[in-house]
Amino acid sequence: MPRQARFVLPNYPHHVIQRGHNRQVVFTGDDDYIYYLETLQEWKTRLQCKVYAYCLMTNHVHLVIDPGDHPEHLGMLMKRLAGRQTRYVNAVEKRSGSLWEGRYKSSPVQEDAYLLACCRYVELNPVRAGMVGDPADYRWSSCPAKVGRIKQPWLDFDPLYLRMGRSKAKRAKQYAAWLRETVPESEWQRIRQATQRGQLTATERFAEELSEKLGRRLELRGPGRPRKGSK
User: Homologous superfamily of 14-214 in CATH?
Assistant: First the structure.
């Protein structure tokens, strides 16, 4: 079966997932996480991408990235991340071979309806995995910076996050409270399935409007599909 072409839009956030080869462990110690984040910081800056959220799990990564004016920069960034981490781990462990699955998965995200939800999905991964009770306790995600526990100057704060309060302290407090709210299972399913299938994370109305704009039919299929006109 031929591979589906990856769908990337300029100036839209994208939820990205990349897993270890055969779901093997990718990060075995602090140095591995630190090296990946250093590469992310360097190349997001070089390629002028925005990183709104991230979470590095032991055998996969979640990122929310806006490639800016150049959609090809998303693929370029992911190539640098995968390639440099592979070379680093292979050198340290004196091994060879692939570290990652061949293709990362990505989904363009409707900003006003689903961007905050996708960031929450990403940052709550360690909680759902039973690794921590509070997402801000997980060191290798964007959550500690967004709730004000640490400073991470290279992390980009998305427009919806910035609307949560007029000051840094108010935004951090409001975001932390929002993370503690109950998340509908339908929201998790919608985000997960859209990313796995390379489809939009969006409402049907938005998909229809974007289809007309691009001259290309964009469908939202499968369980968890939002009802027409839903927000």
Answer: Transposase IS200-like (3.30.70.1290)
